[in-house]
Design goal:
By secondary structure, the protein is an alpha/beta fold. It has a single domain, classed as Lumazine/riboflavin synthase (Rossmann fold, 3-Layer(aba) Sandwich). It has helices spanning about 25-40, 65-75, 95-110, 125-130, 140-160; strands at about 15-20, 55-60, 80-85, 115-125. A four-stranded parallel β-sheet has the order 2-1-3-4, with helices on both faces.
């Protein structure tokens, strides 16, 4: 029996793209900060001259799938992380954006074979979003860990 697991320390040669929604950037910038901190603490070069990491900003969470698709299909990255924050309002707009972003991001991973981490907060209030982006804990850190694990796991599966 073979057992495959990702590791958080197999970062050599791992190229990561992060796609961040600018809408609600008070939240998404904090998610990005937590994500980059996690990646750096696990050995990923997050400097501005890094050849291991690229960051792309998009207008909102609805645009995350398109840019993620482009980056994943480029062959340059072993994993893509999406970061966004969709906060419920008084109209059905929230439901539309969340549904399309989540379906689109999942489709990118299936179609390209590149893991795409779903780091889109979906909350009822700005307070809840801020709590998840750093006031209580920063889920950006978790999304970074997920990327390291999936990048490593996919590499292990490719060597099997």
């Amino acid at each position: 029996m073979a057992t495959f697991e990702g590791r958080f320390t197999d970062v050599e040669g791992l190229r990561i793209a992060v796609v961040v929604a600018r809408f609600n950037d008070l939240v998404t910038a904090k998610l990005l900060s937590g994500c980059l901190d996690c990646l750096a603490r696990h050995g990923v070069d997050t400097s501005s001259t890094s050849s291991q990491l690229d960051v792309a900003w998009v207008p909102g969470s609805f645009e995350l799938p398109l840019v993620s698709q482009n980056l994943a299909a480029s062959g340059r990255y072993q994993v893509v992380i999406t970061l966004g924050a969709v906060i419920r309002g008084d109209t059905p707009h929230f439901d539309v954006v969340v549904a399309e972003a989540s379906k689109g991001i999942a489709a990118v991973a299936r179609e390209t074979g590149v893991p795409v981490i779903f780091g889109v907060l979906t909350t009822d209030t700005m307070q809840q979003a801020l709590e998840r982006a750093g006031i209580k804990s920063n889920l950006g850190w978790s999304y970074g860990l997920e990327a390291l694990e999936m990048g490593s796991l996919m590499g292990a599966l490719g060597r099997a």
